[in-house]
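If it is no trouble, can you show me the amino acids of a protein and the tokens describing how it folds?
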Amino acid sequence: MWRSFVGWLALILAAQSSPAAEPVGVAFDQASGYAVVDDAVRFDLATFTLSASVRLDQLGDSGVIMSRGGAGELFTLYAYDGRVRMLVEFEPGRYAHANVPQPPQKQWVQVTGTYDGQAIKLYVDGMLEAEVLAQGRIPASLEPLKLGALGPGVRPWFGRLDRLAVFDRALDAEEVAQLAAADDVTPMASLVSAWTAETLTDSAWKNVLPDGPQAIVRPVVELICRKDSGYRGIWYANQPQEDEYVYKYSGGLGTYCAKHGPMAIYAAEVHKTFFCYGGTDEENSTLLHMVS
């Protein structure tokens, strides 16, 4: 039985005919959305544990399980270049990561990464597989927690995720083994947040903890429409050169970029033709799609 979000909520909850102990999983891929936990205060941690049941259905260059910050910042549990990594920025601008081999395709494994301010440890199915020194304190930040991708279409996970959990301390080896064997993580001490396939709804990915933050599912492309005060053409320039022309390419462009389409579309419902232009905001700081 398949259960899916309506329209742009393309995360799919797949119920499988499998033993009760095996995860169900929420499907992610390049075209699906990702989930964001904006309540970031509880994830501003000096020590922590990240855990998830994961299944890779397709090999990609990089796929995020859960992350805070950009690439190489704060922490990320992800697949990269044939490995699964637990990355921690242990001091501003410096990071380290523990690595284990990427799991076989279409096979469930539980991946758990811990950080105690001294070392990063990475466990697979409850067994310690990698450890690297990283002495310091992760920079304080209110960056949101992201699940399933780093951003819209950026480093998406290709497969399924389930039983994602965050603890506010580094679990020891015995506790990680207990976590790997448990179907329910809520009795475990120091649990900050957790999400399972069963808590996924049509509007959000609810936390298993009653007071825990929910994850808001966002689309790959988020369309935000608003009425503007008028058209503002965008000034485009690139490839500076030291002559009277200054740039190789430059000018005020109303059709930037030339590849987008359609340039115009007729809507019979309102008997109007709508034209699409490239424009900019009042600060000339970003490219907008302007329709008139």
